[in-house]
Amino acid sequence: MHDASRLVPPTGAVTRELILNGDAAVQWIGSLGWAVAPLSSRFQLVADLIRTDTFAIGRIWHTPAAFSYTADGDASNCMFHAVVGIEGTQTVTSETDQVELGPGQMHVQSFSEALGITAQEPAARLLFVSQWSDLQDSEGRAPLPRSGLFGSSNAHKEIFSSAAHAALNSLTTVDGAGFHRVRAGLDHLFAGVLADDAPVRAKRSRGAGSTDMGRAGRGLPPSLLRRASQQIEARASDVTFDAGRLARDLGVSTASLYRAYEDSNLTPASQLRRVRTRLARDLLEAPGEFGDVDTQNLKRIAAAAGFGSVRAMRRALDGLSDSESEARPDISEEEPGIARTER
User: Fold this and answer.
1) Mean pLDDT of the 325-334 span
2) Whose CA is closest to 267, among 307, 326, 311?
3) What predicted TM-score, i.e. pTM, was given to this entire model?
4) Given 46, 129, 153, 171, which residue has the most CB atoms within 10 angstroms?
């Protein structure tokens, strides 16, 4: 059992590569002022957080869940939330509207308003909290407070997001001599997002299921994503191989591995599932090696493709998402994927 009080992130602290499961994850989210209702049988999160009294920047990956924030009486209109999608589709509900937040999109609203974020699939996002007044430039000018959805083609948002990821990946501390300048820099970059929401270019497309994931995760060695993809391709047929074992074999933490995928539309677990599904399809379309495709040979094909059972293979071939599979206890136990590491 976790002692939840030891997991509460104090004001003026940095939390990196936090991995929590179940009640400990729910309690940690609660310590930040949010409530969470898991939407799958196993709830897990991976998080990084830099936090002070009036400023916070964080990154969180989690299994399907509904998050809700309700402002208390002390919440100020002087502060705001910004949520930037990294992975998965997330439904953002405010007091005035409801929008679908995709990777690269950003939603902004006042800290004094209620906010809900729901993801029916594993999802990741970047969070930013600051004060409107801190967005002023050297001449005291600040963009007008703006709320709502900002598109993925906003060039200034991309610059801000890159800087935010770099800060979370760095060894900065809130009591370091240069932290106030880092914070001011992020505030000024965010002000640029608010100042210009004009479309600049279309979002870059990526082929579904491709193992060429484009740019590596920001701030991480460029080869990590390529090495992970190569390992998945080479070892997908091993039913005991999962994201946790992949991270150990690569010599990185599970959080660092998932962070390497933040610039793609996949996670290590979903990429592994796609490769296994492709293997199964190839074997089923060329059954000569296994003879007639009867029950016994289906078991052999499932095992050869890395699935723990014929049922797990059928779920994957039917195109069910990872979250739908996780919602079924007999499937989630049979097919490894998301790491189960606890701290």
Assistant:
1) 34
2) 326
3) 0.57
4) 46
